[in-house]
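We now fix the convention by which a protein and its fold are recorded. Here is one such record, which you should read through line by line:

>
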Amino acid sequence: MKSRKLSSKTLIAVQVLVVVAFCGAYTMGSRDSRQVFNSVFLNQATYPEVKIDRKVPLQVEPLYDDPSVVTDEELAAVLKQVRPKFPRKHMKPNHVEHALRTWSIRSTFQDPSIVSGIEMRDFLIDHARFLASWGDDASPLLVDEPKGISIRWGSQVGGSVHHDHWLASLTEAGIHLDEPVFAPARRDMDINDVIQQSLRDFRLDEREVEWSAMAFGLWIPPVKQWKTTDGRSVSFDQIVQRLIRGHKKFGVCVGTHRVYSLMLLIRLDDEYDILSDRARANAYGYLERVRDLISVCQFEDGHWPANWMDGKTALTNPEEIPEYKNVIATGHHLEWLAIAPKELHPPHEQIVKAAKWIINNTTSHTEDEILQKYTFYSHVGNALALWRHTHAAKFWDEWQETHPYVPEAKADNDAIEAPKPTL
């Protein structure tokens, strides 16, 4: 039987049909399949995107209004101490981020020396505002990316200290999805572009995932899984497993931020079903163990020690712990307990004792001393406001109506010129 050779015209026709078929398949294919092809065959970077259906982030509200934990007067005294009285020159992003998550974008103050919520927001999202504070003394906080904006973080001067803390703080502060973000070379980006960049860049093996968990949890539900730039799938289940992995002493702020993030994800799962039953049970079990540990390690004066994860041993073999670390432990535990169901609480009297210790500690320091450890004390203000089922900005607005600001010079003069009582 003779072999039959295809004519050149036939070969060309076949090739054209293949190309047409391929182009049709490429065009009709899903966005994900096109991105995979571009990445594998054309060596093009992929930029997956998660559709976010809300313009403002979710909020996890506190569950209690308990004046036995903190009275109005005590809350006002603590919040006065943690007002963002920052110098405008070389304003620290880490301080601003912590202040924003406590005070929110809507915070205003009668005292002009206090930085408002809008001013703090603009400092973080506008390179020009950052430049006005830092000049050439620090690298830009906002980093231009091909399809988004990332945040410079780490120990370098003028940076955000923790990964995704910028995003989580602005999220808790109530930033809008379409709020413009002005990077050094990009003027066409918004908060959504920062979120998408963070989702694409996320890695489960990072040292810190606490703030990524919070930011993603407050923005993307009911979405519970997404893809990173390298094509890996990430889910809230995996984040939970990452948060509970290892000894409880690991993690930021003596392991307490992991606890808050887990509690937040459980509360979000109540409404949006972002966790599997197994992941939720694991997270809940972790928090039960935390409850049991802090139930047996509280000191007589009311504080929880930085080595709370040692349980009873923290009392029988106490370590020499700097005061500020005990402030971290006590304030942060009060914070997550304010959004936790009572089943996850230690005995109520322990919560009251912890609150009274942290109130006395905070109000016994000068404002300058508080400023040196501002990031830790900001959590105290937020925690105590939550225990009164409110937020710092709302409470302070109402408090200022009956307790208006009096400039210090005028207050001093009034004290000097006050008439002496008649004997």
The chain is about 50% helix and 5% strand. The chain has one domain: 61-402. Residues 137 and 284 are 45 Å apart (CA to CA).
